[in-house]
Amino acid sequence: MPSAATITFHSNSPPAASAVLAYLNGQYLPRSAATIPVEDRGFIFGDGVYEVWRVVNGRLFETDRHLSRLAFGLGELRIAAPDIVRRQVLDEVAERLLAESGLTVGEATLYVEITRGVAPRTHQFPPAGTAPTVFATVNRFVPPNDVRARGASAITAPDVRWLRCDIKTIQLLPNVMAKQAAAERGAIEAIMIRDGMVTEGSHANVVGVLNGEIRTHPLDNLILPGITRAIVLEIAQTLSIPVREEAFAEGDIARLDECFLAGTTSDVMPIVRVNDRPIGSGTPGPITMRLFNGFRAHLDASCSAVPAPA
Amino acid sequence: MPSAATITFHSNSPPAASAVLAYLNGQYLPRSAATIPVEDRGFIFGDGVYEVWRVVNGRLFETDRHLSRLAFGLGELRIAAPDIVRRQVLDEVAERLLAESGLTVGEATLYVEITRGVAPRTHQFPPAGTAPTVFATVNRFVPPNDVRARGASAITAPDVRWLRCDIKTIQLLPNVMAKQAAAERGAIEAIMIRDGMVTEGSHANVVGVLNGEIRTHPLDNLILPGITRAIVLEIAQTLSIPVREEAFAEGDIARLDECFLAGTTSDVMPIVRVNDRPIGSGTPGPITMRLFNGFRAHLDASCSAVPAPA
Q1: Out of A65, A223, A296, B271, which residue is the most buried by the measure of CB atoms under 10 Å away?
Q2: ipTM of the modeled complex
């Protein structure tokens, strides 16, 4: 069972804590020294949003799409957008975090979380003017290429999440429980099922190939509008692979020709077994690997085409 | 509109921050100085549970029922129960927090939150042995008797929460949004509607009186098993008031004879208007007030009957 590989795949492999820098409300400090007040609404209510960027050689991938999704979430939650939602500020913060954490060469991730700030506990919003909490940090990232080469396993799990999965909030307990259930079965992801239909995974979108068509849940309140998902669907169109954004049923899983995850830390990850039964040939499928290769080329081109920060 | 009263009702009216003590992982310190690492899973994933106790003259109300619910939640989330889930430890922590915060006379609340602890961010559980985070604090509480005397307003709102509302987790963002919507309309609570049926409020259970029967959503995965709810239903039985634990429809709200909230900081709170339309006579109903009086007598008797901590 690929349990050791699973762990490698899902950790963001943080370097020694002392080496990693955090940004917290305008201050830079070692992450191990970064603390928030107990009355932060992130800690009390899960009242916040987050984003994770892929970083290659110090350059953020798809900065604007992630910022746009972050701004959408803040708007839905009615949290006043802090400065970090401006591209220039984000770039400055990212540059310093990456540089001082020794992550300007190779792959990394940037994590940004914004909560509704610190206030005495009461469900309704705190007084106007309460400053949101802004936390950012970086981690070394090792693409799970060994797992990709042989394909990964997934399980299915009931989708018990709330009905605003389109907002990237820190309400992640159901995702935590689903991911743990997967890990305990040597799988890297839980494919979530709501009302008999496949929605998405605990931390990535799920895409199937069925009867020669790419099938994935449409964008609505039940899934996160994944940025990797969007790019992969764009690439499929350039490759003239038919795409249908229509959910497929749990019962269709056994009939899939191919299946893969699309996500910021998954890239395109072939799923070759679901609940211990093979998908298609039981090896990474040709459409999946064409899409992975197209995605990886786009990732590398994007991160080398963007001028380095001055 | 009762907006000022609403604010009074919902704040836990914290004294000056410097006066209030917090308990954090075995340490006592001013709440304003209590901080948690940014990598606490409460802050990153909303991965934790909490409880709120009513306190009268330094004595906790229904200690064991709340501890039992807390232990249930920890079990469902598979967080190892820390010492504070033992009654003796909880009593010791509460006693010191209340004494040093000047809250041994009159009414107060005790808040306890337990998260899965501090670890590098990855959805699945952290390594075995990762210590849960334990935070507790106290607040002055002023029962909302003025609002109760005239009755309160509520709104209805879609219930978009996850499907494990029976666990008292810190996944409270939908509750935050619903409560805020209520507050902006001068109401104290949002009555949540799922699939056309009344589930509960954002921070209290909802009970109706319909055709002479007490009606409230049954205990299942869609509502919190409220301790005030349970006591009120017990009192109703002693008063020979028929109780039917069966959900009523959104469309039934207009036909209710009476409506009230049941919760730790609501006690029994008459709801006399929903979406600006009167319930019954538009004043606190007789069954509601009998139940409130019975509940209040039980609360006072419980807290005076228990021997004070040595």
Answers
A1: B271
A2: 0.93
